[in-house]
Inverse folding.
C-alpha cells in the first residue's frame, strides 16, 4: 500500500516537472527578447552588479511604440521631465500650423532674427520673405532657431495685431502656445522660447510621442523630416538648401539606415535627444529618446533598438 502511494506521488511529481519544463521552454524565448521584461531585467542586473552595472540605455528617458496599433515595447522613465532642447520646435510647428496657412508669406524681420542666441543652430534665414512651409522646413531639418523666432513673430502678430515689436509678438505667440499645450494634453511640457534654447523648458517622452503622432498626420511634415537634403523654393523664386541634423538619414554616416524616415534631433547642454520614425515589417515604429550624454550615445541607443526590431519575430507578426 505504501509502495503504491509513493508510486503515485512520484508520477504526479514527474508530471508537474514536465509541465514546468514545457512552460519554461515556451516562455523562455519570449522572455529573452530585449524588448520584453525590460524593467525586470534592469532590476535584476542592478541588484546583482550594484553600482558597477549601468542601465542598458544611455538615455534618461525612452519609449518605443508600434504605430500600427499603439503598442509600447520599451518604456524607460516615460514620465520624467527633461530638457526638450530643439524638440520644442515640434510643439511650435504643430501650434503654428493651426494658426496660419502653409502658403502664407512671412517676412523675416531683422528684429526677430536678432533674438537668435549665440551658439545656437541656425538655418541662415535672410531678411526677406518666406513661405511658412519654408520656415517649418528650416526649423525641422537643420533645426534653425532663427526660423523659429521668425515663425513665432509672424504667428504672434496674427494672434495680437496690436503688438508693435517682435518681442511683443513672440510673447503673444508663447502665451497662446502655453494654452495650446494644456488644451492638447501636453501637461508635462513647459516652453518659454520658440527655439527650444531654454534651460528652464521641460517635456517628457510621452508628450514628444503625442505631438509627433499628430504631426505625422500631415503629409508635408512626413516629406520634410524624411529628407537628408531639402531645397526650399522661396516666394521670389530663389532657393535655400538645408542638411538634416538626423544622422540616420545621411548616406555617408555609419549610422545611415534607409528604413529611417524621420524625425528630429535636439541637444542642449549635456542632454542629447532624438526622435526616430522607422519602417520595418510593414509597420511604423516611433522611438523617442531624451537625455543621452553624447551625440554618439543617442544614436547607439536607437541603433540597438532598430536592430532589435529587425530581428524580432514577434514585432514582425
Amino acid at each position: 500500500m505504501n509502495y503504491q502511494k509513493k508510486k503515485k506521488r512520484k508520477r504526479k511529481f514527474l508530471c508537474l516537472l514536465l509541465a514546468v519544463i514545457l512552460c519554461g521552454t515556451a516562455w523562455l524565448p519570449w522572455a529573452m527578447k530585449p524588448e520584453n521584461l525590460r524593467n525586470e531585467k534592469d532590476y535584476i542586473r542592478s541588484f546583482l552588479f550594484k553600482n558597477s552595472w549601468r542601465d542598458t540605455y544611455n538615455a534618461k528617458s525612452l519609449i518605443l511604440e508600434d504605430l500600427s496599433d499603439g503598442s509600447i515595447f520599451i518604456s524607460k522613465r516615460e514620465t520624467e521631465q527633461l530638457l526638450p532642447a530643439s524638440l520644442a520646435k515640434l510643439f511650435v510647428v504643430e501650434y503654428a500650423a493651426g494658426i496660419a496657412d502653409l502658403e502664407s508669406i512671412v517676412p523675416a524681420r531683422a528684429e526677430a532674427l536678432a533674438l537668435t542666441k549665440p551658439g545656437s543652430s541656425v538655418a541662415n534665414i535672410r531678411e526677406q520673405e518666406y513661405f511658412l512651409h519654408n520656415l517649418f522646413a528650416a526649423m525641422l531639418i537643420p533645426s534653425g532657431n532663427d526660423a523659429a523666432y521668425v515663425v513665432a513673430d509672424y504667428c504672434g502678430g496674427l494672434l495680437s495685431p496690436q503688438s508693435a515689436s517682435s518681442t511683443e509678438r513672440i510673447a503673444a505667440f508663447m502665451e497662446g502656445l502655453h494654452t495650446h499645450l494644456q488644451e492638447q494634453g501636453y501637461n508635462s511640457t513647459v516652453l518659454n522660447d520658440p527655439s527650444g534654447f531654454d534651460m528652464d523648458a521641460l517635456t517628457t517622452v510621452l508628450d514628444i510621442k503625442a505631438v509627433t503622432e499628430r504631426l505625422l498626420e500631415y503629409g508635408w511634415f512626413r516629406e520634410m523630416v524624411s529628407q537628408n537634403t531639402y531645397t526650399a523654393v522661396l516666394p521670389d523664386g530663389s532657393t535655400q538648401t538645408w542638411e538634416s541634423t538626423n544622422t540616420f538619414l545621411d548616406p555617408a554616416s555609419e549610422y545611415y539606415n534607409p528604413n529611417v524616415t524621420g524625425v528630429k534631433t535636439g541637444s542642449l547642454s549635456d542632454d542629447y535627444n532624438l526622435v526616430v520614425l522607422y519602417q520595418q515589417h510593414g509597420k511604423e515604429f516611433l522611438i523617442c529618446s531624451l537625455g543621452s550624454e553624447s551625440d554618439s550615445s543617442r544614436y547607439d541607443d536607437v541603433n540597438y533598438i532598430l536592430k532589435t526590431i529587425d530581428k524580432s519575430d514577434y514585432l514582425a507578426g
